[in-house]
Amino acid sequence: MTEVNTSIITCQNLWQVFGTNADTALSDALSQSEGNSDTAATLLRDKGFIPAVQDVTMSVGVGELFVIMGLSGSGKSTLVRCMSQLLPSTTGDILIEGENVVSASKKRLIELRRHKMGMVFQHFGLFPHMSVLENVAYPLKVKGVGSKQRRSRAAEVITLVGLEGREDSFPRELSGGQRQRVGIARSLSVNPDIWFLDEPFSALDPLIRRQLQDEFLKLQATLNKTIVFITHDINEALKLADRIAIMRDGKIVQIGTPTDIVLNPVDDYVREFSNDVAKGQHAKVSSVMLSGENPTTAEDPGLTTTMTLDTALARCVNLYNPVPVRDETGNIVGNVRPADLATALQAEDL
Amino acid sequence: MSADNQATGLLHLSAGSRAAFVTLLIGALCLTIEPFAPWMVSWSAAWQLPLTDWVGTSLTWLLDSIKPAARAFSAFMNYPMNWANQLLVGTPWPIIIGVVTALGWYLGGITMAALGLIGLSFVLASGYWVEGMNTLALIAVSVPLALILGGLLGILANEQPRIRSALQTVLDVMQTVPTFAYLTPILLLFGFGPVVGLIASAIYAAPPMARNVMLGLERVDSEVKEAAVMSGGTRFQQLFQVEIPSARTQIMVGVNQSLMAGLSMVIIAAVIGGFNDIGWEVLLTMRKAQFGQALLAGSVIVVFAVIIDRMSATLATERKHYDHRVTFGILLITALGALLFWSKVPNPSDISLLNPVAAFVDSEMSEFIRTNGAWLESFKNSAVYYVLLPLRIGLDDAVLTFTWGMNWTASMSYWLFAGSAIVGGLLALRGQVTAGLLVIIFVGVLETGIAELPWLFVLVATAALAWVASGARLAIVSTGLLLTILVSGLWDRALLSLYLSGAAVLACAVLGGLLGLLCAVSPLAWKIIRPICDMLQTIPLFVFLIPVLMIFQIGEFSALLAIIAYAIVPMIRYTRHGLINTPDDLIEAAIANGATKAQILRDVRAPYAAPTILVGLNQTILFAFAMLVIAALIGTTGLGQSIYLALGKADVGLGISAGAAMAILAMIADRIVQGFAKERRIALGLQ
Ligand SMILES: Nc1ncnc2c1ncn2[C@@H]1O[C@H](COP(=O)(O)OP(=O)(O)OP(=O)(O)O)[C@@H](O)[C@H]1O
Ligand SMILES: [Mg+2]
To answer: What digits encode the pLDDT tens for the residues B255-281?
Structure first.
């Protein structure tokens, strides 16, 4: 679990309601429901408005890889669009490095986008009249970077996503996966600190997907970017995420570490997501460990905090009493009851 | 069914039936009290407001106040016009032909190069080179002006949503205002001369550009727009580096439409005279009844239209790259040839290779008229006496001994109505109440004549139709608009226009529908008819007048034929398109159920095509109104004639009022038909 020290993106009571005069409708609904956001959202829905983001409060830490999941139409893209200010949110505050971007001037927003933020779009959003190279170099062009520098930087990121040799192709000549990689390259060309990715790997085949995921983790480790990542794929989320937010009908129903989400889902909706996950391969022993207490038994199958539940259970098959758990350095930090391991793994079948 | 049920059954008639029922009642009422209350039938002159005069006075005042600026502008526009003129007329013709051929190659390869070469050679051979170049010079100035104006408006509307809806309305209205109606105020503002045609053409050609720019920008993929935003572009960079280039295809469609509209208007503006262009030449030769020459000059217009249309259309498609060396080669040969033969190039006005053809056409034509005149005359007469006149003034006035061999009597009316009542009643009993009522109403209209319909009936019938088509709002608006025509004193003329366009639309609907059906079932027929349709749609309206005039002389019948020839195209196209494009799964389901081809056509394709066909009908109506005014040149009565006369007298009040009345009729028809089309689409779950 990454400790969130300083938050780089903070959303406070963020609402995004679609419909004409949504702001008055929202404030009416809120006053009518005496501030209860669920009641207000129902009122709005009844009147034909779409509360796509509903009273979201959350923050993303510096260098964190934050994943947003949720069913189709649950408001994931809309939430990210609000963060990047592509959509002016109906109410609420969005702080980027402490600066409230909701009230930022147009000029300031352009500056932020030129230097701070990058975004990969769900449907790529490539410029149809530009070649791959021109697409990737475009963010540099609007910044006024000279053409030679532009080309060399663009070539660099194109190589990074493995598209070298296709620089002069046009988007219509590329496959879906290739297009997506152009989108990724384009968003990387200005080397942003904050990177928004809306289902970036959905159009890729499993092999390239895994390659890019690994590439991605490496990138994040070296560049320490803050990443907000939307995906439908729970395995992808568990693999990449520091924390996961699960959205439903515009609301965030749970935020937590991958293990939290898998082992302690707050409701059936969240549980559904992790249903097809082999839990044992993702959850770690630390999630069921009782810290501090010293076990009374002598048996020590050699569990460590970072061991997966599957491995741990395999080592404790015949054991019934609590066993000690060690950290990386070998000190005993707590104990685990083997029964808890099994229960945690079966939670989904309840 | 119990009596109780029947009683409530009457109350539960469909909206259409109720509307038809009310209309029928009002019609019957009008017929019965006609003898006692003539004011119910024809609007009393005492109730008219001098609307036309008011419009005239206020417009004249307005125009006078901006006249100095307009005149200065027109003086200024003289410069680019003269330059373009000198450039096109002064440049030796071989160079122009060479450049156009090279341009053709550059845009579309060998076909376009050949089109340019052959087309312009024809223009040269026809002896109308100078006139043609004069016309081109006008377009060369007016269309770029229109493109800039339209492009700016489109961008502005895209940037300012509040301007957008206002502009949309203005463009909608401009589309329905007949072309001639533009000319009168422009004439007053800018004075006589080619500059009027230039400005009229620039104004007329701007809307298609504005529309397409708006549409193109709107249709740019939203994520593409967002990607431009996230790249950190300023609004200006987003617009000019991403959105406009992405919308290129649609914008090029706008350029194409703008060019065609500009050409069409330049030709029409020749009516004002004062400039030796090709439109004027057509008018002149038509007036002198030199049909061979008129046809030749008309063909020059057609050639220009085809070249401009086809070449600019390549801009809107996926461009292929043709070898630049060929382009340069053609240019080089042209330049060399021009240098070598500089002094020997014959003067284009001295070339008249095709004069013998014109003479031949003339002699053949008179020969043709001499041998076939009798049956042509009788064809025309029977159409006029047995169809047009009854439609116009009703059976009661049109049936005379002199033409029908009998006189219409009151008892005939009774029998007719009794017959229609029986047919209507039978239909109603079979459950088709609306159809039954419509039969009776139709017979009533036929008996009275469209031009003599009581005003009350027209108002109620229109309101009823509008109500059924789209609801109370349209009904109220339509009635209000019709009332303004009524009190303005243009009512009689409006009915005459309604009659002529109604006749044309009816003919187009039947004929075009059948042709569309034929094309839908027979690919061969479509192969033959399609190029004809393409051609008819490219030809400027003006040219339609020449052949009908040659054969049937001046008169309503010729006008009718010209209108039909122009307005039938959308009906054919949309009918075919609708019938062809039924979803495959529907057809397969029908085949699986054992339906024959004819059954599929009737039960699956036709209902599914209905909304599309209605859109075609709508286009046909608008086309017919547009042509109605042009047809005024060869003898129609009604609003078109008023607009034309107003132009001659520079009477803005009449010109604009009659133009507005025409636009009102067109708009009401447009909204009603669109309402029905929408209703059908919703019923089919297509919307
Ligand atoms: N511009 C818009 N106008 C109106 N409604 C919108 C708009 N954009 C999104 N919505 C609505 O907001 C809701 C959330 O949409 P959003 O695109 O955020 O969903 P999502 O979670 O990203 O779904 P998906 O996984 O399919 O991408 C949906 O009901 C959608 O219809
Ligand atoms: Mg989405």
So the answer is: 999 999 999 888 888 887 778 888 888
Do strands A226-230 and A99-100 pair parallel, antiparallel, or not at all (unpaired)? unpaired
Q: How many CB atoms lie within 10 A of CB B382?
A: 12
Please choose, from the candidates A179, A186, A129, the residue with its C-alpha nearest in 3D space to the C-alpha of residue A156: A186
The reported pLDDT for the residue numbered B8 is 46
Q: Which residue has the CA at smallest separation from atom 5 of ligand 1?
A: A18
User: Which of A86, A130, A142 is the closest to B232 by Cβ?
Assistant: A142
Interatomic CA distance for residues B679 and A71, integer angstroms: 35
Chains A, B: CB contacts within 8 A come to 68
pLDDT interval class at B122 (50, 70, 90): very high
List the structure tokens of B19: 């509307």
| Cα A122 to ligand 2 centroid, rounded to whole Å | 6
| Range scoring the smallest mean pLDDT among A6-15, B336-345, B619-628 | B336-345
Task: Give the residues surrounding ligand 1 with Cβ less than 6 Å away.
Answer: A 18, 50, 52, 70, 72-78, 122
Q: State how far the Cα of A287 lies from the Cα of A265, in Å rounded to an integer.
A: 13
Confidence of residue B611 (pLDDT cuts 50, 70, 90): confident
On the question of pLDDT at B82 being above 80, the answer is: yes
Residue B100: the pLDDT is 94
| Residue in A81, A113, A129 nearest the CB of B232 | A113
Which value does ipTM take for this structure? 0.81
Task: Write down the pLDDT at residue B507.
Answer: 94
Q: Which residues pair with A15 in a beta bridge?
A: A91
Q: CB atoms < 10 A from the CB of B407, how many? A: 11
Using the predicted structure, report yes or no on whether residue A188 has a pLDDT greater than 70.
yes
- Written as one letter, the residue type at B488 is S
In the predicted structure, residue B427 carries a pLDDT above the cut 70: yes
A301 Cβ contact partners less than 8 Å away, ≥ 6 residues apart = A312, A315, A316, A319, A323
Reported pTM:
0.82
- Percent of chain B past pLDDT 70, that is, above it, reads 98
A134 pLDDT band, cuts 50/70/90, is very high
* CATH 1.10.3720.10 is the classification of domain B140-282: yes
Structure tokens that stand for B349 in this block: 């006005």
> Does the pLDDT value for residue B593 go beyond 80?
yes
Fold (CATH) for B489-687:
MetI-like fold (1.10.3720)
Nearest CA in chain B to A187: B231
d(CA B81, CA B314): 27
Distance A126 CA to ligand 1 centre (A): 20
Residue A129 to residue B245, Cβ atoms within 8 A: yes
Tokens of A217: 């983790």
| DSSP code of residue A284 | B
* Three-class secondary structure of residue B438 per DSSP: helix
Question: Which residue ranges form the domains of chain A, and what is each CATH number?
Answer: 61-116+192-277 (3.40.50.300), 280-346 (3.90.1280.20)
| Per-residue CA distances from B327 to B93, B98, B101 (Å) | 18, 10, 9
Euclidean distance between the first and final Cα of chain B, in Å?
A: 37
- Same fold: B140-282 with B489-687: yes
- What are the sequence ranges of the domains in chain B? 15-47+394-483, 91-126+288-339, 140-282, 489-687
What value does the mean pLDDT take over residues B382-397? 83
**Could you give the residue ranges of the DSSP H alpha helices within B383-471?**
389-393, 395-398, 401-404, 410-429, 433-448, 455-470
Which pair of structure tokens corresponds to residue B172? 């909608």
Between these two residues, A67 and A287, which has the higher pLDDT value? A67
Evaluate the CA torsion angle B212, B215, B221, B222 in order and state its sign: positive
